[in-house]
Automatic annotation (TrEMBL):
This is BTB domain-containing protein. The keyword Repeat applies. The lineage of its organism: Eukaryota, Sar, Alveolata, Ciliophora, Intramacronucleata. It comes from the Eukaryota. SMART domains: BTB, Kelch. It holds the Pfam family BTB. PROSITE patterns: BTB. Keywords: Kelch repeat, Repeat. The keyword NAD does not apply. Residues 349-414 form the BTB domain. InterPro entries: BTB/POZ_dom (IPR000210), Kelch_1 (IPR006652).
Length: 481
């Protein structure tokens, strides 16, 4: 109802955090291009229900599992086709509340429950202070209660708050001070953090909003927050809570604009920040009326529209991607190519390293770019063709260390590229203070981490002050427990 086209530009007032985006193509024959649908997570599956495809509403169930979409047949009292409803998971049940049915003055006020194990629908016989019709509202679970901030009813914009008890099927109007409530709106977004319900943005019938309000369940009070750097005014966006942060994606703005940005709200700091999305494949992310499902640290974005274009793509935002191990830039490429020809050559050599009774010819002027070698040549080995005996390193490792200094890369076969090989090379790079080789070893070791190698690689990182590698080990450990 509130979708617009255009390309939203992220404001430049925020500091950036680097994130990763992974694109997964959906099956065009199985999952339609829709907006104002719902998506939930249950047992490693994502359930899509309802939505609008520019021509009609839907009441189909599509399930995403293991990279595939499946259209499923449900039984029981199947809900009428709708959009703008909400879906909330409680144990093994999905509660669908309200929505626009496409006819009549008002939206639906019904509550349907889908048993997610057997795909059986039930129309719930509710009791208590049943709210009126609701559409483009929000629904959030706190304990056993689903809190509904009612949004629109098909005719008016509202700001009443209701709770639905999933154990007793009892509705209750949440009585709060009139002057504390957020102004009426629909097509807003909501999220829960520590028994607090957050309401952001939406459409009030004349303009889009970017205000942020918080309802504290414990004190039964609303408060308007004044965070640092709020996102642009918008409607049709989505929010989700992950690891004590609230993430907001997309939405429609004024003047035919859709946003494709990811914003992060920190409830402790009361501050928003914008997060840079990095993707290997360029694609149009700006949209509104999409769904947003959090599974662990991953955010799944599906569908939505921008103007007359409806999306059926499906992509993932990783809010905690692997730490990026940056490899220090090597020396000038043209110089490395020239020096490479002098590696282990007697021509112009003025120092010889002896390792495991094998000789390596070297050149002081090339090695002296590193502080350890510079001091070695300045104080101990001033004379031509002196021999330096290396006793704490194998020939293969020291040979690779020298080759790296000359060529800017390594000269080793696949057999040598093992955890032990890079451990020894990392140790020597740390000892001889060669930062670009050290970061290369960190990067290489990170690619060899699995459940069998994690403990020892983490130990190596700690012993050799390999901070980038240590951060990667800690990330891997947190994600593979």
């Amino acid at each position: 109802m509130f979708q617009n086209d255009g390309n939203g530009q992220s404001p430049n007032w925020c500091s950036y955090e680097r994130q990763a985006v992974k694109v997964i193509r959906s099956n065009a024959n199985q999952c339609p291009a829709i907006k104002n649908h719902t998506s939930i997570h249950y047992k490693k599956q994502i359930f899509i229900f309802g939505g609008y495809d520019s021509k009609k509403n839907h009441n189909d169930i599509h399930i995403y599992k293991d990279g595939n979409w499946t259209k499923c047949k449900a039984n029981g009292r199947i809900p009428e086709s709708r959009n703008g409803h909400t879906a909330t998971v409680v144990e093994n049940k999905m509660y669908v509340i309200g929505g626009w049915l496409g006819s009549g003055t008002y939206a639906s006020r019904d509550v349907y429950v889908l048993d997610l194990d057997c795909l059986f629908w039930t129309l719930v016989n509710t009791m208590g202070e049943v709210p009126g019709p609701c559409n483009m509202h929000s629904a959030d679970l706190i304990g056993q209660l689903i809190y509904i901030f009612r949004g629109g009813d098909g005719k008016d914009y509202l700001n009443d708050l209701h709770s639905f008890n999933t154990k007793t099927n009892m509705w209750k109007l949440v009585q709060t001070a009139e002057n504390q409530r957020p102004p009426p709106r629909a097509n807003h977004s909501s999220a829960v953090w520590q028994n607090k319900l957050f309401i952001f943005g939406g459409w009030d019938g004349s303009k889009r909003l970017n205000d942020l309000h918080c309802y504290d369940v414990t004190t039964n009070r609303w408060s308007e927050l004044k965070p640092i750097q709020s996102p642009s005014a918008r409607a049709g966006m989505c929010m989700n809570t992950i690891d004590n942060k609230i993430y907001l994606f997309g939405g429609s703005g004024p003047q035919t604009t859709c946003f494709g940005d990811l914003q992060c709200y920190d409830p402790v700091k009361n501050a928003w920040s914008i997060i840079e999305l990095q993707d290997d494949e360029q694609f149009d992310k700006a949209r509104a009326g999409h769904s947003m499902t959090a599974i662990g640290n991953l955010i799944y974005i599906f569908g939505g529209s921008c103007g007359s274009h409806y999306f059926k793509d499906f992509f993932i935002i990783d809010t905690d991607p692997p730490p990026n191990i940056s490899v220090t830039d090597f020396n000038n490429i043209s110089i490395n190519q020239y020096f490479r020809g002098f590696f282990n050559q007697s021509k112009f050599s003025d120092i010889i390293f002896v390792v495991e009774d094998k000789q390596l010819y070297a050149h002081k002027i090339i090695l002296s770019q590193y502080e350890i070698f510079n001091k070695m040549f300045e104080w101990e080995y001033k004379h031509q063709q002196q021999k330096v005996y290396i006793n704490d390193c194998s020939f293969i490792i020291f040979e690779q260390l020298l080759y790296f200094i000359y060529a800017g890369d390594l000269q080793c076969d696949q057999y040598q590229q093992s955890v032990e090989f890079y451990r020894q090379l990392l140790q020597m790079a740390d000892y001889y203070l060669i930062p670009n080789l050290k970061s290369l070893c960190e990067k290489s070791l990170s690619l060899l981490i699995d459940n069998t190698t994690l403990a020892k690689i983490k130990l190596y990182a700690e012993q050799m002050n390999a901070n980038q590698l240590l951060k990667f080990c800690e990330w891997y450990e947190n994600h593979n427990n």
